[in-house]
Automatic annotation (TrEMBL):
Protein name: ADP-ribosyl cyclase/cyclic ADP-ribose hydrolase
UniProt entry tagged with the keyword Repeat: yes
GO biological process: defense response; signal transduction
Record keywords: Hydrolase, Leucine-rich repeat, NAD, Plant defense, Repeat
Lineage: Eukaryota, Viridiplantae, Streptophyta, Embryophyta, Tracheophyta
Reactions that this protein is recorded to catalyse: NAD(+) + H2O = ADP-D-ribose + nicotinamide + H(+)
Listed EC numbers: 3.2.2.6
Domain TIR: from-to ranges: 59-234
Source taxon at top rank: Eukaryota
Transmembrane parts of this sequence: none
GO MF term (any one): ADP binding
InterPro entries in alphabetical order: AAA+_ATPase (IPR003593), Apaf_helical (IPR042197), C-JID (IPR045344), Disease_R_plants (IPR044974), Leu-rich_rpt (IPR001611), Leu-rich_rpt_3 (IPR011713), LRR_dom_sf (IPR032675), NB-ARC (IPR002182)
Amino acid sequence: MASSTNDFIRKSRSHQENGSIASSEILFIIESESHQENETMASSSSTLLDPQSSLSHSCLHHVFPSFHGADVRTNFLSHIVKEFKSKAIDLFIDNDIVRSKSIGPELIEAIRGSRIAIVFLSKNYSSSTWCLNELVEIMHCREEFGKTVMSIFYEVDPTDVKKQTGYFGKVFEKTCEGKTEEEIRRWKHALAEVAQIAGFHSSNCRTVEHLLNFFRKNEAEMIEDIATDVSNKLNLSAPSNDFDGLVGMESRMAELMPLMLELDSHEVLKIGIWGPPGIGKTTIARYIFNRYSRYVDLSVFMDNIKTKYAKTACSDDYSVKLDLQKQFMSQLTNEKDIKNFSHLGIAKDRLKDKSVLVILDDVDRPVQVEAVAKENSWFGHESLIIVITQDLKVLKASGINHIHKVNLPSYDEALQIFCMHAFGQRYSKDGFIELACEVVSLVENLPLGLRVMGSYFQGMSEQDWTEALPRLRTHIGRDGEIASILISYDSLCDEDKHLALHIACFFNGESVDIVECCLAKRFLDVTQGLRVLAEKSIISMKWGKIKMAELLVQLGRKLVREQSVSEPGKRQFLNDAIGIEEVLSDYKADNSSVIGINDETCGDIECTSERAFERLSNLQFLRIHGDGINPRSMNHISQKLRVLCWSSFQMTCFPSSFNPKFLVKLEMPNSKLEKLWKKTQLLSNLKRMDLSYSRRLKELPDLSTATNLYDLDLSYCSSLVKLPSSIGNAINLNKLDLRFCSNLVEIPSSIGNAVNLEIFDLHECSSLVKIPSSITTIASLTSLTLHSCSSLVGLPQNIETVTEPHHINLNGCSSLVKLPYSIGNATKLEELDLSGCVSLVELPFSIGNAINLRKLDLTFCLSLLELPSSIGNATKLEELDLSHCSSFVELPFSIGNAINLQKLNLSYCSSLMELPSSIENAINLRKLNLSYCSSLVELPSCIGNAAKLEELDISHCSSLVEIPSSIGNAINLQKLKISHCSSLVEVPFSIGSLINLELLNLENCSSLVKLPSFIQNAVSLQELELSEYSSLMGLPSSIQTINNLHELTLNDCSSMVELPSIMRNVGRFLKCLKLEVLLDDINLESLEVLSFSECSLLESYPESPTYIQELDPWMGRISRLTRLVLSGMKNLVSLPPLPDSLFVLEAENCESLERLGSSFRNAYMMLNFRNCFKLNQEARDIISRTWTSAYAVFPCRKVPQCFTYRSCGSSVKVKLNQLALGISTKFKACILCADSDGVNFPPLSQASVCCSIMSGGNARTACYKKVGRVSSGHLYTFRVEIETEEVTSPELVFEFEIQFGNVNSETWEINECGILQILEVPHDDSHY
């Protein structure tokens, strides 16, 4: 597997950062780049290194500067030094080093010991051999050790540095006098390398005086940008010590590594981490996330899912899953409020080509996985999904095949964990070793218990330890559980013990302020009590939330149950369904002891009595779910309630007897409430009210007394028409959520009195016509969300003063005709989103005053005709998106003034006829999309002057007749898409000058007759798309000189009859659907993927044995071939020996295939011979003998004799006394599928085989194998493994079941199954 070690792991070792220009200044070019050799890792797990292991954890200095003192020391550099110091950036200063012609060991050590090197390239930099030798060493460190290098070009042209020309070159020539050729060569190489990092020069400034004035004006801002950039890079590269105190992580990762290695570059891997609470599952996942998240496109760690997303745990309702997926995408993409999140297909659409690392922590329901990671196809190659749970059933139900059970640490590791928390080191202090060992033995190696006990014993004397141990032994005796953790509980005073029980039974996961308010009357000092519990490791407080570990929660609840085992009505809290039902059903008993009910059964409790709460006179905290409890029991609810959480409440109004006087928190989501109560109620204690998804709610009560209300959630209350004017009395209101209140017509002007409002969400308030002007008086408002307010016709003046300073989002405001002129006053505005404003006709001229505007999104502004000429004043504009603006006619000439414009999207601007010639002034333009501009006749002749252009898309420009020859000047162009340009007659010869072109798409250019011969000059070309090029008869022979070409697509090139006789350079993909050639006409030495799917005219291997022998050398030379697709080749009779590098062989529907040339030696192969009914017995035997960790499938009538244990049906027994067993034993399994018996499965249903292994009647393990589509009368073989070291039963029972990811109610019958022990990994034809 040496050539296919998974890229996810490989990336962690050979990651390469690509620099980008960090400055918008004319005087400077700032760039950084980290360079490492891109090595291929060996497949052995012993060679897999921690991705941070090669990074230095010791750093002498943060930054090493290389500069010519006379040029920069007394001006620019001095300001840099000052700014660096203010940001705690340590800069190496060489004042005490005596300069000479060569750099000594001290300076080399300083360069290598600095995390970043900054090269200040100035006019006289090359006059100093000292500077040049420094540069040589810096660039050496960059290439060899991945040193991050930043370059600042100070009043010097990068081209002069690269080529040693101009004044810089003259100075360099003088320095080179008398120097050896080797010295000069090294200097030139270093200068050329450092110059390539940048690409921005000062030639556009008219005079030196103009340059100096420009510099003085912007110097402070520029220096701050440099310092910020350096600070960000230091933060990114800073070695993490978050896991320095962890013990045993190496062994945990070694256990996980075999699963990690299942991830190769062609698949998505899901791993389940399973184990009891407190054993360290989350810690392992955080370790993986910390180490590997930087090596994927996107990453997210969603923690405490069971607690944070309880709604999802209780329902698979579409809208709830949608909300969880939205939260997932929000965290993954770092978007606070994703717009237009309307269906569950968004995650797949956004992520299908992205590599992601997703960790779902504390999952307790399959629906939580289904909402965010249902199918592998949602994610791009090399993605890793990790699901953490205590429930193995969750993983099985989610179709997760790779499951890692977390075991307890070894005794030595447990001792180290305990010592870390007790003594702050990995070993015991003198005199404590025996005591420490006894504690570890009593705690039974549970990591959570070790941490808690270590914190408890920390700082104690030897005598204190001796006195505490007997109490610990007493606790251990409780039912044999790991109750030792409660010794910390016993050390608390009675007040703090009671507080801990309140949290365990009801307030775990609650916000600190709610807890403090609810318990203020029950405890003397709640704040101090919480602090004590945190110090004792009983709870943690992060982000304003209280969190208690699950094991502590369960043990705390056990103590409460022990208050009265047989009479639950005498306990303080009820958490179990049985106890809750018993108390609610027995309304005659004295239940006055109960102060809290916390139903976590998600609606499983049934109680029909209207008097359920009659005897619960002291009930203060109530949390129940669903409609199982009679809602009329609310007539008898306690008047002392402080927390009322009742989802899916069925009454339309609270009874008149209900008194919310003491309520701190009221949560009634998804209720049938139409109003809360009729008369004005005292609500002075109320801090949070959640009525979300109460779709029948028509009005809110008078809130004039709700002066402490902090959070009001009315999202999805679609019948709510207005808010009460008393909303302004909620002077402490911080968050108001009105999302999807689709009938809300107006906001009362009194909202301006809510002076502490910070977050106001009106997303999808589709009936809202206007925003009151009083909103502009709320100085604290930081986020006003208005997108998709489709009836909103205007905005109040000065609206920009209350929206989020850097971002205004009006997406989907389809009735909005214009913006207020004052929008230009938003000088801090960086992003303006007007996408979907289909009625917007124009932008105000003042938009040009938004001098910091970086992104302007106008997609689907269907009525927009033009942009104001002032848009050119937005000189910091980087992204302008006008896609789908079908009425847009022209781009203003002033757009050329937007010198920092990098992305311009004009796709689907069907009325656009031309671009202004000023586009050439957009010197930083990198991406230009003109696709589907069907009226565009020509491109400006100067288009090639956009020297930094990297991507140009003019596909589907059906009126475009020619491409200007200047395109050849865009030497940085990497992607050129010209597909479906039906009027294009020829491609200019100058395209051959595009030496950096990597992708060229000429698909369906029906007027083009031939591929120009200049294609050979595109030396960097990697992908060439010529599909539906109906007039193309052949490829120019010069194409074989393109060394980097690895993807050539020729689909439906109906006129093509031959390929060049030698194409040695196509390295990855060749797909010719209608090509009629012989395979020996092609010589593809570096081929990785070869597809002749459905090439029914292709004669692959004539039956002549001599001819087959001639083909063997050809196949053997494809040493990199990993995937071969031959599906649908109806005339294919035989296959030659195939290379060992092959991982996937697809030969489905090769109906004439009879013979296989040799055995398959790759132990990780997937073999698909579905519907190859003519395979001879020798071929079937070869497939049966192939040992594969994936699967193999071929037509078969019964289980082959080579399987030692065979049985009819879906289970088979294996006698262990006949086998040689080790710590773990590998088996080859097979199943023979029966007919479907009329069950209609979707044709593309992807199946998995679940193999459950039983021993002595107990389940030992279970694994899942994906086998693609299931076909009746076919044999499927795959590998399974079980730990057999501790198996005492004389036999194992293997049970098989076929499951479908998209079919829940049906199963496919298994006719026969078989098992064969695998003694070793095969290295030759003797597989067993």
